[in-house]
Structures are given as structure tokens and as C-alpha cells.
Amino acid sequence: MITFHCVRCGSLVTVEFPVSACPSCQEKKTPTQYHGRREKGKPVVIVDDLETARNLIASGPDRNAEFDWGYAGKGPRALAYSLLEDACGTPAAMDYAEAYAILVVAGFGMEWTKNRHEIQAWVRGREGITLARTQGSKVAMMGSRG
User: Fold this and answer.
1) CB 8 within 8 A of CB 34
2) DSSP 142
3) How far is residue 63 from each of residues 75, 79, 97, 111, 118, measured CA to CA in Å?
4) Percent with pLDDT over 70 in the chain
5) 77 and 65 Cβ atoms separated by less than 8 Å
6) DSSP of 68-86, one letter per residue?
7) Do the strands 112-115 and 53-55 form a parallel or antiparallel pair, or are they unpaired?
8) pLDDT tens, 97-109?
């Protein structure tokens, strides 16, 4: 028997086989969740799909950068690309990683959770819109939806 805290609801559970979420949360069939936190000062991002939990793997042009969040930069851009690729696929990551890093990841606090449906909805809300750089660090979304 294994005793653990559910990564979704925090309840203490004892089960016969290793899982990342308690039986109650598993029955709810909630979408894959992404949890970010700092362990001993290092950023850790866990992908929880109810049956297993794994570390998010860095991918994309900034894959050698350490994941980070709470500001706009290379680490948050690497995290944004990897989250989008895992949740939506490579085309969405290529198209929207820069915007997602600036508009979403830069706003993450010390600990955060996003689910796959939230990330996919964010992308759907921006289809047909491109990120345009303006003066200095100002960024604008441009284009049409449709």
C-alpha cells in the first residue's frame, strides 16, 4: 500500500498502486494539468494526466534554457513553448509561444496550475492573430480572427 497526497485536491490517500491523483479526482476525469513550483530554488514543472505524473520536457528553440516564470525572458519562453506543444501540438507552440510567454507565463506566481483545456482555449482565442514587436519591449497582438 502507498500513502500520498493527491496532486489535485491535496487529500491524503492510501492505494495499492502508484498514481498521481486520488480515486475521487480520477473519477472526475479532469483534463491533464500542469503544475509549476520551485523546489530548493529550482523550477519544476509536472504534467499530471491522472494515471501518471511526469516532468515536462523542454522542447523548441529555447529547449536548453531552464524553465522559469514570473517575467518575460528566455526561461519563460522555453516553458511557454513546451506547455503549448504538450497541450496543443508543435504548430501552436511555434505560432504562439512568444505571446503565451509574455501574456500568461510572465504572470505566474511562485506556484501555479494550468490544465490542458485552459491552454487549448487560450490558443483557440488567438487563432489568426500574430504577435508583432513594437518599440522596445512593447508587444501588440495584430491580425484578424477568422
Assistant:
1) no
2) E
3) 9, 9, 12, 21, 23
4) 70
5) yes
6) --SSSSHHHHHHHHHHHHH
7) unpaired
8) 999 999 999 999 9
pLDDT on residue 86? 94
Tell me the HSE value of 91 on the side-chain side, using a 13 A CA sphere: 3
Q: Count how many residues are written for the chain.
A: 146
Q: What is the CB-side half-sphere exposure of residue 96 using CA atoms within 13 A?
A: 26
What tens digit of pLDDT does each residue of 128-141 get?
665 544 334 444 44
Give the ranges where 47-129 is alpha helix by DSSP (H): 74-88, 90-103, 116-124
The cell numbers describing 23, all together, are: 480515486
Q: Check: CB of residue 43 under 8 Å from CB of residue 66.
A: yes
Most confident of 4-18, 38-52, 75-89: 75-89
For residues 14 and 88, give the distance between their C-alpha atoms in angstroms, rounded to a whole number. 33
> 118-144 burial by CB neighbour count: b if 16+ within 10 A, else e?
ebbebbeebeebebeeeeeeeeeeeee
Q: How far is CA 100 from CA 1, 5, 39, in A?
A: 41, 30, 24
